[in-house]
Amino acid sequence: MENFTVTPWEVNGSVDYDKLIKQFGTTRIDEKLRERMKKTCGDLHPMLKRDFVFSHRDLGAVLDDYEKGSGFFLYTGRGPSKSMHIGHIVPLLFTKWLQDKFKVNLYIEITDDEKFLYRKEYEWKDVQATAQQNILDIIAVGFDPERTFIFKDSEYVKNVYPLLMKTARKITASTVKAVFGFNDSTNIGLSFYPAYQVIPTFFEKKRCLIPAAIDQDPYWRVQRDVAEGLGYYKTAAIHTKFLPPLQGVSGKMSSSGGAETAILLTDDEKTVKNKINKYAFSGGQPTVEEHRRLGGNTDIDVPYQWLSILFEPDDLKLKKIQEDYRGGKLLTGEMKMLLIDKINTFLKEHHEKRKKAEKEIDKFMYTGSLAKTMWGKIHE
Amino acid sequence: MENFTVTPWEVNGSVDYDKLIKQFGTTRIDEKLRERMKKTCGDLHPMLKRDFVFSHRDLGAVLDDYEKGSGFFLYTGRGPSKSMHIGHIVPLLFTKWLQDKFKVNLYIEITDDEKFLYRKEYEWKDVQATAQQNILDIIAVGFDPERTFIFKDSEYVKNVYPLLMKTARKITASTVKAVFGFNDSTNIGLSFYPAYQVIPTFFEKKRCLIPAAIDQDPYWRVQRDVAEGLGYYKTAAIHTKFLPPLQGVSGKMSSSGGAETAILLTDDEKTVKNKINKYAFSGGQPTVEEHRRLGGNTDIDVPYQWLSILFEPDDLKLKKIQEDYRGGKLLTGEMKMLLIDKINTFLKEHHEKRKKAEKEIDKFMYTGSLAKTMWGKIHE
């Protein structure tokens, strides 16, 4: 029997996603829904096609609203972390695809408060510096600057405060204890915080769709309990799995877990090459001879998994890689080289876009069309 | 055996102030400290002289700081209530005296958030309207507009947010449960709120002195637990008793308790007269004959108590009233007339000052010297 834990702060063990769906009470994205998405969007994002985006709440209702013309909006977020890694950017890439397809507003909450409250050792000013760096990485993903509002909780709090109070008044201590595992030693900031993460789902009187990793779902459960009582929609959500860490296909990548688990967005070509060659868990055989004879196992091969989730959108090419590896034709070192090239190409582009992002920060946060509208609002 | 309850939200029964001092761990203001105040201030406010201002924390240290020239500042607050009554204004009058004597900055927190969070039936917009009305009554007390900053929690939250997070991170759920009697059914807004009430004690890197009724002291206990860990002073406090409600010298006046308990700041002359004559609990005898023979009891006579606490600053006059009443020379109706005249004179002046206050709101909240400085600050 396998054990695993998934909370907004911790992902451990080999996650059984079917069990998780049951545990969280979400719904699998089935073939029918996938087909509907394809029909609406023209094509399917590889993450959706390949079951990395695997679960949802009310996605059907979102598509209904879209078709009826009442529309919807997107919301996702980010807890500032010192070094963003490849895993962090995965839901953002999918979010960008959704924005491109549906041309809708997107709100990105930078949860500087939560990060600070959760980590006793963090200094406020460090979290702020980190947030600023993370925002550059987010902008580099390529969202629409006129339809995207990126805000830090600490900066935008005055604009949401009435709504925050209304929401907090509807959530009891027992709820956050049950949902998040808080207890009486939890600080009062952290146990209050879930109210804030709920707020952006109320930014428009339309249905909200949240693309995020499944570990954030407990917040949406709380949201769905209080939303209608406040005159808003229950939020919809679309969940990704976790990009496996370098050292094996269980748990979640972590930037604090050391060099052996993650590729950081700041890593240079040489670092990427070294990390993948040294740490990426391989599904290949111990010797070339055995590999040629028995073939590798793509199910547990981290380089293959990363190609599948993120770096090889071409289905035919991916299929060939899989067959060659399983058939012993493609060696472990070669599989790793494929990935290294892909990652380095991706990071090179990312670094360029990130440089340009410095000039775009103001648009996303203050002066763009959506941002400007948002700063003029007090949400009640 | 008498039972009584004193919390920030409830005062019931006949309060034994000596027991309360023990229970809260505060210190009685003794003759020596009173003398020192007199020496420093030139005279003593009647509330201080007559033991209505009766307890403190670190008042001696405040006077030390003042004498050394390092100074201190004042902080008090108000939870918006539909109709402010005479009892609400009592600590404010004493606060004004302190500001006049020491020429120090004063911060007045309008806790619109707390009021809303505590009362499930309140609408946000109603609390806002009420807050605006209360602010006029506060300004009418006559504070120094260049040295006083009045702010609503909801409006100033962005400026305090980093400090609020730092403070909240140091307070656990068990602490607020123990101190305020919260439990798991308490909403997460209310259990977070104590962090905000602590914040103004950190507005300057000087000692803070809080003049307030003793029911607010639990907040200062929490403050004193966390202050030094955050690099600030433990706050000092100076506590008033409760102005007795009309119907008898126990409990606390309440505007929601009905016409028979309180004189509202908006009451007109006739209403005051009717309320006092009809509801003010008298320590006199049932008949004029008995009263002439046995005399009245000023200890339980509400009109006398009000004169003593608030409306007859002249010691000689008050002494004469007491002697005449106890000796049966002054009748109950006459005592009540004395009070009615005093209250109506006070309210007439108050209504005039309140009218002028409308023009001063901006100064106290945004444009006065202290207010302006405060809006330019983010407290970290």
UniProtKB/TrEMBL annotation, chains A, B:
Entry's Gene Ontology BP terms: tryptophanyl-tRNA aminoacylation
Assigned EC number: 6.1.1.2
GO cellular component, as recorded: cytoplasm
Annotated Pfam families: tRNA-synt_1b
Reactions performed catalytically: tRNA(Trp) + L-tryptophan + ATP = L-tryptophyl-tRNA(Trp) + AMP + diphosphate + H(+)
SUPFAM superfamilies given in the database record: Nucleotidylyl transferase
Superkingdom field: Archaea
EC class: ligase
One example GO MF annotation: ATP binding
Keywords: Aminoacyl-tRNA synthetase, ATP-binding, Ligase, Nucleotide-binding, Protein biosynthesis
Family: Belongs to the class-I aminoacyl-tRNA synthetase family.
PANTHER family: TRYPTOPHAN--TRNA LIGASE, CYTOPLASMIC, TRYPTOPHANYL-TRNA SYNTHETASE
Name assigned to this protein: Tryptophan--tRNA ligase
Provenance organism: Candidatus Bilamarchaeum dharawalense
